[in-house]
Specification:
By secondary structure, the chain is an alpha+beta fold. Strand 7 and strand 8 (113-120) form a beta hairpin. The N and C termini lie far apart (45 Å). The strands form 2 sheets. Strands 17-10-11-12-9-13-16-15-14-18 form a 10-stranded mixed beta sheet, covered by helices on one side. The protein has an 8-stranded mixed beta sheet with strand order 2-3-4-1-5-8-7-6. 18% of the residues lie in helices and 36% in strands.
């Protein structure tokens, strides 16, 4: 009874049009308008991977996580209810907006809303990028990864592992970023062969999302995205570099509302049954990834 993959992210925005330009012209996702001012951003044959809805502030509303079947969905829901957690089963308009057959949500101890779904609803039309991105690496490994704030760190980590079945991949400490200038802990978690689909950071961020990652097949696509950042004057949050834990070659940019987006290639694919050694790194990258402040 575990999650299988990150299915989608839901953001609120006071200016959805900014997400449309950023998502299509910079990230290379295919944009489609939805009801009530919503915006869908498509990365593969699924109906969407990012949903943006109008809101008073810019922030992540929910991360959507998929399980493989109705049986797995029911079993996980029953397990969470049995532990006394507040589980809300959604239907009607919510299912239609999320393009899924079933969905419930639950909140972790740090206030992150988690949507668990099964049965994607899509015409499975071929993805065509408006700027020529060949493809995004998704499939059985989901849309990428997301890094969520976890100020109530120990309880939140326990929640995701005990209740949702995530496996710990590795650990990072960020000097001076934690409470009262202490080290901030970051734990990375897997639920499929992607080295991590989730990370939890011992910080608080107004956007509700430290960053999310989109992966492309090769470094040329990463370079082209860097060129698009320059052309559209999108500020970088981190320079090009290669991570220690997942070998990803990537850069970071500031998306709408202060959410960072990692755009990379070459992420490690793991056989967890054969190689499940949890390690702690004392630095995040082999090279590069010089971090830049939020502009203004």
């Amino acid at each position: 009874m575990t999650l299988d993959r990150l299915a989608y992210l839901v953001f609120a925005s006071a200016d959805v049009s900014r997400w449309r330009v950023f998502g299509s012209d910079v990230l290379g996702l295919a944009a489609r308008e939805g009801a009530d001012g919503a915006l869908y951003l498509k990365a593969d044959s699924r109906a969407f991977r990012i949903l943006v809805v109008p809101g008073e502030t810019d922030r992540l509303l929910a991360s959507g996580w998929e399980v493989a079947s109705r049986e797995a969905f029911d079993a996980l829901r029953e397990k969470l209810v049995a532990t006394g957690l507040d589980v809300r089963v959604r239907d009607g308009a919510v299912l239609a907006q999320r393009h899924v057959s079933g969905l419930f949500d639950v909140t972790d101890p740090s206030g992150n809303l988690i949507e668990v779904c099964w049965g994607p609803v899509s015409d499975f039309a071929r993805f065509v990028s408006p700027v020529g991105v060949k493809a995004f690496v998704t499939g059985d490994m989901g849309m990428g990864h997301v890094v969520l704030p976890a100020p109530d760190f120990d309880a939140t980590c326990d929640f995701w592992t005990t209740h949702l079945g995530m496996g710990l991949s590795d650990i990072l400490r960020l000097p001076g970023f934690g409470p009262d200038g202490a080290d901030a802990r970051v734990h990375f978690y897997h639920c499929n062969p992607r080295q991590h689909s989730l990370a939890l950071g011992e910080v608080t961020v107004p956007s509700g999302c430290i960053h999310f990652m989109l992966e492309v097949p090769d470094v040329d696509e990463v370079g082209l995205a860097l060129d698009r950042c320059t052309a559209h004057k999108v500020p970088l949050a981190g320079t090009l570099g290669r991570h220690v834990n997942d070998d990803m070659i990537s850069f970071y940019m500031w998306g709408p509302g202060g959410t960072q987006v990692e755009f990379g290639c070459g992420g490690a694919i793991k056989d967890w049954a054969a190689d499940n050694i949890v390690f702690e790194t004392t630095r995040g990258s082999h090279w590069g990834h010089q971090w830049l402040p939020f502009p203004g």
